[in-house]
Amino acid sequence: MPNPRSALKFRPGNGGSPDSARLRTYRLALPPVSGVFRPRLVALCAVLTAATFLLFCWGLTTGDYPIGFTEVVRALVGSGDPGTVLVVRELRLPRALVGLLAGIAFGVSGALFQTMTRNPLASPDMIGLTQGAGTAVVAGIVLGWDGGLGTQALGLLGALASALTVYLLSWRRGTTGYRIILVGIGVAWICTSATDYLVAKGGRFQAQAALGWLVGNLNGRTWDQVGPLAVALAVLLPTALLLGRLLRTLQLGDDVAIGLGTRVQPVRLAILLSGVGLIAFATASAGPVAFVALAAPQIAQRLARTAWPPTVASGLTGALVVLGGDLIARTLVPGTELPVGIVTGVLGAPVLLWLLARANRAGSGG
Amino acid sequence: MTGKRARTALLVALPAVVLATLCLLSLALGAADVPPDQVIRALFGDAPSRFVDNVVWTVRVPRTALALAAGAALGLAGALMQALTRNPLADPGVLGVSAGASFAIVLAVGVLGINSLYGYVWFAFAGALIATVAVYLLGGLGRSGMTPVKLALAGIAVTSMLWSFTQAIVLTDVDALNKFRFWSAGSLADADNGMVWRVLPFLVIGAVLALACAPALNSLALGDDVAASLGRRLGLVRLAGVSAVTLLTGASVAVIGPVVFIGLVVPHVARVLAQSAGIGPDQRWLLPLSAVLAPSLLLTADILGRLVARPTEIQAGVLVAFIGGPFFIAMVRRRNPAEV
């Protein structure tokens, strides 16, 4: 039996596909619970879960008004003094939950897109979804078009509209991952330019508000943002995880996947829908937090030493990056609250570079 | 054989004629229209009135020249970058060059208080250079050395880092924000002769380097191993290529802002045209073709921007995306994905 780690080689871009004979060995070698054969991946998910939980709790205790851990727990169950309960339950908990959920959504969605298109550059921030959300929100801010819908709804509508546009425009007797990327880039640039134009057209304070949203931040998030996000994730995450398995065959190229009995177009549409839904809700709640959907899957892939971005680990990495970034953003300069997107942009970069530098030739580096 | 020759001749003549026509239109159209015959007379020093002479020589000629120079530079840089990284998604925007220039400009305006265009042009150029060198060095880290994907990922990492720094400054400094938001939309409106002359030397050196790389890029397309066995010195080719990209993008981004769509879309168009003329993916054709097609796109956008919103105008960078985007999408749809 060939080593499963090297049986599948993840080749981004237009690289070649592994031969199907080795693939079959790989598929048959794995029972439904792949963890049996991937102790490293299981261990990684455990570590990431623990780290995410710790960061989540740490975030609840930290702020202008430090609260001890036991106080936080008491505030969560509703006892303790009213001030602490207010800070924890109404200010910090929704913020931390938006960070957690949006981070998971960014990571999982990035993993789906990157695996489906076999290109690490094909993150949702490259193919027009976050840009569509950005244009809608900035139009709302600058032109006053929100019609009482609010930023979150506009962001959601913008992301879904651009996703639909990309999908319809890339449909021509079916779609291919590659065509989706290229059409997505076209749509992304149109949206970015429209946003740039709106920002240049608006007043200086509108422009500042627009840019503040475009960076992505968790400041002032309330339960209004948590609710829709949580419901969306409850539906979309299980779907995404199930689809993640089907992605393995798509990765080999359409012809091989069809040969192996995968119904390529329905699977691709389902993946797109769940990936788009995740990214749309996450962006609508937290703004287009820089780099997470792109970097989290790449980081998770290198930590797990798998040949593709592992779905669950990517989601956890995304949550870790967003929560950690927000914690740093809140505490870096006392008295100010930097947007989390600035921190994820600055910190995500060296991590990715470090992993790049460590990459070896066994397919994990690309 | 003659059929192929005729198509090749058409491939050379058609873009040239289109570009020349656009130049004339760019000189004629704007807030005040000047009839084409008067434009031509003004160009030869025989302007019918002082006003026409003034409009043509001090407003329209620098603007058109800047569009030609910066557009050609962006097209060349994009084609070069896609060939170097063997990734059709690569463009100077992805590899950190534009982000470097943007950050340096914001730094100059926001932190150092430099407000004159000539002051921050040099910052933009330095920023682009530093960012490109950083991406190049970082992309070569690790045991397997530089690979196309590592280079692109390093570019994205550096881009996102610089973009975050830029946002951090812009969000806390309303003056810097005001400069930045007009500059980043990509406008040719402030062009004057000094700007063109200042960036021209860099663009010429960059273009010469780029064209010198073309034969080596053809071997590089066959893969590193094949190129090396054909006697190409890969490190040298990449160094020359990246230097050319830096010079071309740094200088053009500094004067017209980060209009990155051109670098992405034009090489794709050039490949389609070259293929329909029966030439195929030969960089010795694709690079010059990109250098002619790119200013055509930029000029079209600039001219439309002047006409659509008269008496004000819409930034060329915005319209480049609105023209190039649908065109790009249509092209992607029409072609077999393997060819695009």
From TrEMBL, chain A:
It is a multi-pass membrane protein. It is found in: Cell membrane. GO terms for molecular function: transmembrane transporter activity. Gene3D superfamilies: ABC transporter involved in vitamin B12 uptake, BtuC. GO terms for biological process: siderophore-iron import into cell. Belongs to the binding-protein-dependent transport system permease family. FecCD subfamily. This is Iron chelate uptake ABC transporter family permease subunit. It comes from Streptomyces liliifuscus. The lineage of its organism: Bacteria, Bacillati, Actinomycetota, Actinomycetes, Kitasatosporales.
UniProtKB/TrEMBL annotation, chain B:
One of its GO terms (molecular function) is transmembrane transporter activity. Pfam families: FecCD. Keywords: Cell membrane, Membrane, Signal, Transmembrane, Transmembrane helix, Transport. The chain crosses the membrane at residues 64-81, 93-114, 120-139, 151-171, 199-223, 235-265, 285-304, 316-333. One of its GO terms (biological process) is siderophore-iron import into cell. It is a multi-pass membrane protein. It is found in: Cell membrane. InterPro entries: ABC_BtuC-like, ABC_transptr_permease_BtuC. One of its GO terms (cellular component) is plasma membrane. Its main location: membrane. Residues 1-31 form the signal peptide. PANTHER family: FE(3+) DICITRATE TRANSPORT SYSTEM PERMEASE PROTEIN FECC-RELATED, FERRIC ENTEROBACTIN TRANSPORT SYSTEM PERMEASE PROTEIN. Belongs to the binding-protein-dependent transport system permease family. FecCD subfamily. This is Iron ABC transporter permease. It comes from Streptomyces liliifuscus.
